[in-house]
Amino acid sequence: MNKINISSNIDLDDPKFRIRPYQQIVASCTGAFITSIFVTPLDVVKIRLQTQQKAMLSNKCFLYCNGLMDHLCPCTNGKMPEWMKRNGRFNGTIDALLKISKTEGITSLWSGLSPTLVLAVPATVIYFVSYEQLRLYLKDTYNSEFKKKRTNVEQPFWIPILAGGTARIWAATLK
Fold this sequence. Notes:
61% of the residues lie in helices and 6% in strands. By secondary structure, the chain is mainly alpha-helical.
């Protein structure tokens, strides 16, 4: 029986092992989607807990949130949002998850998923593809300049920092 010997000296940045930009796009879309699926219920709970706290402290009731700001109105005659009446007071994250899913249905925990995906998927694709392409470009340029003098040049520490900062600015600008 033949054993496959995988050497620990494989450079994943070697051009023959690099993944293509379209593969990076698929990977980052998948990552953004999966992250959004798991994080959206926690965002719903966080917003409800924050809203409950604001309502208790300011004697104002939550009306709605448009993504930019919460709209509060004075609580008069016990008028408050229906979800606040049904669920009662939340005592923490787990309590909120259970009460929301019990009274409003389990799918209500993903009520903000579509706007999350609209923002997260393109931003993640732009960031990760830009970061990886820029990092590889800088590393290849650096190596082509210094390979003349030395062999097996390591990637300098500043290349991922510069690539990450530039990619984040680019993604935030386009978002």
